[in-house]
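Input sequence (320 aa), recorded before submission:
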Amino acid sequence: METINAIRDAIAEVHDVVMVEADRSAYQKLAENSPDFAFNVSEGLHGVSREAQIPGMLEMLQIPYLGSNPLTLATCLDKARTKEVLTYHRVPTPAFSVAHRREDVDDLRVRFPSIVKPLHEGSSKGIYNSCVVRSPEELIREVVTVLDTYHQPALIEEFLPGREFTVAVMGNGREAYCLPIVEINYDVFPVGVNPVYSYEAKWVWDTPGNPLEIFRCPAEIDQDLQSRVERIVLDSYRILGCRDWSRIDVRLDRNGIPNIIEVNPLPGVLPKVEDNSCFPKAARAVGLSYNALIQTVLNIALARTGILVPVAEKPAAVTA
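Predicted structure, token format:
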């Protein structure tokens, strides 16, 4: 709720706001309120296409909204489908397989080390230090854990040894641009753990009360690497049909080639500096306060949808 309220407050500086919770009553409330625009940050309730649920409702009601459409949101929450689309377009991404059941592992050709993840999750859910596997026995253990705990297929992905970055993107089409690149600094992790931005790293070791210097922003990289990272990020953003904003994760392979490891069309935007949220951190690096970030992305979406906002009026916006 802290994030939802912060977004509401930022929008309310320039627009009237009506709050609509993304639950089973959302469709009726949206229909009754008939807002001019919806600032969508909903992640949905159930199923592999849950992030597409509210945008689907909004499209049925012909209410313009912030962010990617249902197809892009559903595709990006399926890590394997995302990688298939990127591979088709020759965008580098780590080699992968999917295990729908324990027996599938026996038929896979896996290159170690690999990392095992739930296929349909975000926010590092289901990704722990133990998910980096270096033997068939460890692989089976982690696949079974994903299948039994999250009741969904397991993604088995080649674990790349290089530096890792996350890149905030804003805009649309050829006008989309990258904010300063954020690098994940694994040097601050406890001794002996794997260099992966795991659940422990995100929610246990790095806390508001004891924040780690886990991010460098802007990343300390040369111009050539920066250009290559930004190019692959913007290519992926456009190929997958992302709109208005997204955050995209990149890791270097053993040859220093940037690879896409995840695309997040619903980026996290925790408001406090000590929350270490990457999108606001990148925005602050170019002088955008939290409220200015929210208002900027809203204006980007308003421009995309063709809404003209008269200076003297305050059209309603909905945070769903």
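Checked by second reader. The mean pLDDT is 92.
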